[in-house]
């Protein structure tokens, strides 16, 4: 059973495109913001995650290619055939320069 605050907060999630990225933000007046990531496979649980901390603003940015966007340097595959990219610097720049302001 979900707690009552989850039902109340579900109406307060805003989806925006910021600098070409999909971002979902809870409608909360708090100056404290928790930044997280989500991918297509997270969509089913995203509302629950975003509503888990009602007193804190949550900003969830969509990650399309986890290995590319969150890896700081290129590396061979750890599992399977897909290696790691070096896009973490760009992701961090987006957070600092576009999302946070």
Layout of SSEs?
Blueprint: H1 4-9, E1 13-18, E2 21-26, E3 33-38, H2 43-50, E4 57-62, H3 66-69, H4 88-99
Parallel strand pairs: 3-4
Antiparallel strand pairs: 1-2, 2-4
Could you explain the architecture of this structure?
- The protein has 4 helices and 4 strands, in the order αβββαβαα.
- It folds into 2 domains: 1-63, no CATH class; 65-101, no CATH class.
- Residues 1-10 have low confidence and may be disordered.
- A 4-stranded mixed sheet has the order 1-2-4-3, covered by helices on one side.
- With 101 residues, the chain is α+β, with helices and mostly antiparallel strands.
- It has helices at residues 4-9, 43-50, 66-69, 88-99; strands at 13-18, 21-26, 33-38, 57-62.
- Helices cover 30% and strands 24% of the residues.
- A hairpin with a 2-residue loop joins strand 1 and strand 2.
How much of the polypeptide forms β-strand, as a percent range? 15-25%
Mean pLDDT over the residues? 87
Q: Per the principal axes of the C-alpha atoms, what is the gross shape?
A: globular
Low-confidence stretches: 1-10
Radius of gyration: 15 Å
User: What structural class do you assign from the helix and strand content?
Assistant: alpha+beta
